[in-house]
Design goal:
Blueprint (H helix, E strand, L loop, with lengths): L1 H8 L8 H5 L4 E3 L16 E3 L9 H14 L3 H18 L7 H21 L6 H14 L3 H14 L6 H14 L3 H13 L4 H17 L3 H18 L8 H20 L3 H11 L5 H14 L3 H14 L6 H14 L3 H14 L3 H5 L3 H25 L4 H21 L5 H17 L3 H14 L6 H23 L3 H16 L6 H14 L3 H13 L5 H17 L3 H17 L5 H24 L3 H11 L6 H17 L3 H14 L1 H6 L2 H11 L3 H12 L6 H13 L3 H14 L6 H18 L6 H12 L5 H23 L7 H25 L2 H23 L9 H30 L9 H13 L6 E7 L9 E7 L9
Helix pairs in contact: 3-4, 4-5, 5-6, 6-7, 7-8, 8-9, 8-10, 9-10, 10-11, 11-12, 12-13, 12-14, 14-15, 15-16, 16-17, 17-19, 19-20, 20-21, 21-22, 22-23, 23-24, 23-25, 24-25, 25-26, 25-27, 26-27, 27-28, 27-29, 28-29, 29-30, 29-31, 30-31, 31-32, 32-34, 34-35, 35-36, 36-37, 37-38, 38-39, 39-40, ...
Length: 956
Amino acid sequence: MRRLIARSILIALISTGASAQESGGNFQINLGEDGKTIGEMRPVFLEMSSQALPAISLKEVARRYQRLFEESEEPEVRIDALHRLTNLHSIGGEGLDLSPEQEEVIYREALKSYEMIVKAGRYQGRLDELLYQTAKAYAFIGNDEQSVQRLKQLVGLYPTSNLAPEARFRIAESAFSEGQFSEAEQAYAQVIGSDARADLQGKAIYMKGWSQYKQDKLGQASHTFLTVLDDYYAQSDGFTALDGGAEALVNDTFRILALMASRTGGAAAIDRMIAAEGGKPYDYLLYDRLGDYYLANERYTDSVQVNQYFIDNNPAHPRAPAMRAQIVSVWEAGGFAAEARAARTDFVAAYDQPATYGGLSEPEQAQWRSLANQVGSSLYAEAQATGSPSPEVTSTFASAGVIYDRLADVSSGIEAPQKIGEQRRLAGDAWLQAGKEQRAIEAFEKAGYEQSGYDGAADSAWAAVALYQASARQSVTEAGAVEPLDVMVAALDRFATAYPGDSRLPAAEADLANQLLTAGDNQRAQRFAKAAVAHPKASDKTLLAGWLVIGQTEFDASHYDKSEQAYRQALTSVKADSNVKPEREAEIRSQLALSIYRQGEAAAQQNEVDAAVGHFQRVAGVGGEQGLTIGAALEASVVLLKAERWQPAIDQLQDFRSRYPEQAQANNVDEKLVYAYKASGQYDLAANEILEHAADSADPWPARIMAAGLLEQAGSNGRANMIYGDYLDQASDPASAEEHVRQQSLRQKLIEADGVNIPSPRLESLVDTELASEWHSDKTLTWAAAAALVLAADESSRYADIRLTLPLSQTLAAKKAALQKALDRYQQAEALGGSEVKSQALFGRAELYRVLARDVMSSERPSNLTELELAQYDVLLEEQAYPFEEKAIDLHAANHQQIASGVYNDWVQKSMDALAALYPARYSRESHWMPWSGDSAQSANSIVTEEVMHASNSGS
């Protein structure tokens, strides 16, 4: 290492002529070209004058000088040889280099010569210089103690030597390095008080401050360091003309002052330093460097507080903006994103007004614009990241809008149009997010129409148009007002004038047309829609929107044929645009279908049956809403029904039902078909229609009964009766008089179809139902009475067929059981019927007893009886038969007695005839007509029979 240092320090030019070497004035010792610290000191070197070199190599010359140094006994010669050898090694390159060990050996040998000369006190040159060089040599070999001793010797022996100031400085340096700060302070003070050169005095003052600092004399140290700064401030035009070394020293001075302030109260300590000195023109730098010190030590909060302290106490100071900027840098350096963002915001807010911004220097204005851009971007990003709307988010977006607006204003004429236009656009976007549509529109329009050269101008202008669109749409929706649309019309016209070729124009026209349509302004809506579909750059989507508006406006004007054509054009656009959802296409088809439907309605109103039906039938081919298609198909049938075109109506209804079975039921198509069948005389088909669908209802029987009636009209009585029979078989007991009469009527209908005099279960049901019912009518009573008589006759016939055979007890019991059944039926008939039925029932009952008496008398006799026994047996039979015969006579007599009540009929007569046969001795009668006494107005003839009794008890 020492070898490298020697090469860099001991540089000399050697002379190579023999005469030059012999001359005593061919070299001199140069002083003052030395290192700045003890560690940098080197022995003096010789400066030789340049002459032409002899024809001998440097290596050989060096070898000879080294040999001379080693062999000479003369100190002065050895020193001279050493100096020349060192110079040669310095200029000769690595080929002449000495090893560190060799170099140290040489200098140690040289010191012997130096010491010998010093002790001898004989030297052809100046002894103070020799002492100086000896000190340097000791320093070179690392013997600092001896080096300092020689320097002190120099100062003591030669205090006025021009080498004394530097020697004192070296002594002070040594004391400082040894930690002897008080001694170092005094030594530096001596340098300062001497006539040392200015740069050395400056260094001494600086080191004196450090010595005081090391002794904790902070007040004295701060004064000393401020003195250093005062000097350099004065010498460098306010620190603006410092060379490299001076700049480093000044910076170090500021740093140590910052260090001291950090230990004694921070910014307040600087206040005290400045107050003690009476103020400094560079005071802001003291605060600035304190902030830097804290920053370097990662004390970010302290650094910020220092800058803020200065700003708070010196808000109008020219360097206050720089301090604000420093706060931003500190927070950024520490990675405090939130604090840095807040600091940028504070900086921007401090100078956002024209006056405060104008007070900034150009670099500061540029910095403000840069920070404003960051703040605006940060605010915008923060609000965007929040996601859900809130008052805070809205306020943040608004703040971003304010900054971007101001940024664009102050950038005018400075920044490129592209950048300003972008700032305007960002302002508009921020205002939009803040819900300030009008502010957003203003910003977008400035970017779109006032910022020439901005390549996003058209997009910004379009953004304004889009906001007008939204505002107009909302106003129309909420209030039904047209005025906002006038603004939209003007905005769209302005855009069209500025950017006539913009492909977004037709879409905007179509959208405006829709809004005008919503507002009820059909005339302007159709105008814009027609302009949209006529635009050469109109997309399929735009064409679709335009044609839809045209279709709707024509529809509203009852121009249904034109509306149909517009909707067909819309469907063409749908087919060309694969992005249209099927649901949307379905809606358009429904609108088309409705236009056709309305044409059908109009034709129907004009009684143009064929045209109306044709339109209604065309609806199905459009594929619109099913309900509309169904309605059209149904309307076609209604038109045909009204026109009494029964068969086409039937065909239409049948087709409708096959296509739409569910809707057919809901729209009573079955009933309409029945109506058409009946109206056209097709009763059997009408009945079939009813029967086909009767089972679908909860109670099918009313429909089936109706169908049975139609079948009767068609002559299909058998099918009708089957239905009636099935109904009665399942019918429950009537719950009303009406239901009772209906069921009895149906039973009677079936009885009549089978034959009224033929016994059947229907007859029994008719009778039983009538007897059990609480409701009756003349018809039902008559039918039930007649049925009971038929049943009674049937029972009487079976009764009569039973012969009394042996054993008589068994056959007689069967006979009596049959008798009872017949009697019951006659009694039922008598209970249900009128006088005519009663007469027939009395006669029937009497005959039953007469037949029983006869059959008893004619019953089979036992074959094993004697004649006497047989006679006695006959007497017994007579005794058994007699009561029955008497009962018969009584019943016939009761029938006969009805004459007194004005009742006379064939059955009364038959009873009279029977009485004459049963009891001829008692009953001999003649009949003749007599007038019925009573009200003359109501008089009638009644048959009165007068009986002439041959018996003694006549007149009974």
